Amino acid sequence: MMKKMALLAAGMLLAAAGTASAYEAQLKAFADLAPKDWSEDAVYSLSALGVIEGYEDLTYRPNDSLSREAFVKLLVNAARPDGGSVQGEGGLKLKDVPAERWSYPYITAALKKQWIDFIPDASGALRPELAVKREEVAAAIGKYLLSLETSDVAKRWTEGEWTKERELRRFSDDGTINQSLAPYVYFAVRQGVMEGDANGFRPASSLTRKEAAATMYRLLNAGIAQRKLEVTGFYAIRSYSAIQRMPLLDRVAFGWSRLSYESAGSAKLDTKSTEYRFPDGWQEPVDAATRAKLGKELMIFATEPRDRVKEFLQDAAARKSFVESLKSVLSESGEAFTGICLDLEGLKEADAAADYVAFLREVKAGLGSKTLTVAVPPTYYYKGYDLRGIGEVADSVILMAYDFTHQDSGLPSAPLPLVSDTVKQALLSVPKEKLVLGISKQANQWVTAGGKVTLAQPDIAEVEKRIASPGIALNRTYPYFLKQIAFQDERGSHTIYYEDADSIAKKLWLAKYYGLKGVSLWHMGNVTAADWDTIAKR
Question: SUPFAM superfamilies from the xrefs (predicted)?
Answer without folding.
Answer: (Trans)glycosidases
